[in-house]
UniProtKB/TrEMBL annotation:
Protein family (similarity comment): Belongs to the type-I 3-dehydroquinase family.
GO biological process, one term: chorismate biosynthetic process
The EC number(s) this enzyme carries: 4.2.1.10
The protein's enzyme class: lyase
Protein name: 3-dehydroquinate dehydratase
GO molecular function: 3-dehydroquinate dehydratase activity
Length: 261
């Protein structure tokens, strides 16, 4: 589910669930499941009753019971990192994530590494107590920071004891895309936890296809609705990744060389 990317294994494919109410969520879920994602990300910041914990738990139960055992990643993306505007404070978001952790409905929670250290430590404690995985993430929808800054965000996730570190950045040019891939490659060598990285938008779409070759263990794809720019439809992404693995396999490469001679 969240394994180490070593350039040899296909990444897990995660698709977003962005319905604003339980009816939309279940309709969207049914369509997504037909495409057999490895993980489903429930973007709770899209949910219109996010402030009602009973409604959240009820919706989470519906998703869990209808999800055909697909692991659910629960995310409340903050507006400052590209999420939907919500009327909750960081402390209230932490309380929701902690409460959901106490139930079997989700397998993974995502929290931003830029949040308050005491909130990160608390969620690490609660998630561990309830056998949930914790992803600590960093998103920059404006630009791609220097490689050292991307690496720092990934390192901080490991420092806080996360089960996986995520970084998503917006490129302004092709060099920015290479910066993200280089940061991923170097972090994969230095860190002991799985990485989830991507360059967003059209320019960065290639990282969703080949990121696994540099150490990213999960890639995000469109099941029904997109939650970030540059996401590729899951059916197309799966085919492209399989083709990429085939043509980059050393055995296939050598056999092609012999034939071409």
């Amino acid at each position: 589910m969240l394994g180490r990317g070593e350039g040899t294994h296909s990444p897990s494919i995660c698709t977003p669930l962005v319905g604003k109410d339980r009816k939309e969520l279940l309709t969207e879920l049914a369509e997504i499941l037909l495409k057999k994602p490895d993980i489903i990300e429930w973007r709770l910041d899209f949910y219109q009753e996010i402030q009602d914990i009973n409604s959240v738990l009820s919706a989470a139960k519906d998703i869990y019971e209808n999800g055909e055992r697909t692991p659910i990643l629960l995310t409340v993306r903050s507006q400052k990192e590209g999420g939907q505007p919500i009327s909750l404070s960081e402390k209230e978001v932490v309380a929701i994530l902690a409460e959901v952790c106490k139930h079997p409905y989700v397998a993974i929670i995502d929290f931003e590494v830029s949040n308050q250290p005491e909130h990160i430590r608390y969620l690490r404690e609660v998630s561990k107590e309830n056998n949930k995985k914790l992803v600590l993430s960093y998103h920059n929808f404006s630009f791609t920071p220097p490689k050292a800054e991307i690496f720092k965000s990934l390192f901080l996730a490991e420092f806080y004891g996360a089960d996986a570190a995520k970084a998503a950045v917006m490129p302004q040019n092709n060099q920015d895309v290479l910066t993200l891939l280089e940061a991923t490659r170097e972090a994969e060598k230095e860190l002991s936890i799985p990485l989830i990285t991507m360059s967003m938008g059209g320019l960065g779409a290639i990282t969703r296809i080949v990121g696994w070759m540099y150490g990213s263990s999960v890639t995000f794809a469109v099941g029904k609705s997109s939650s970030a720019p540059g996401q590729v439809p899951i059916d197309e992404l799966r085919k492209i990744i399989q083709l990429t693995k085939k043509v980059t396999d050393p055995e296939n490469y050598h056999s092609h060389q012999i034939v071409s001679m």
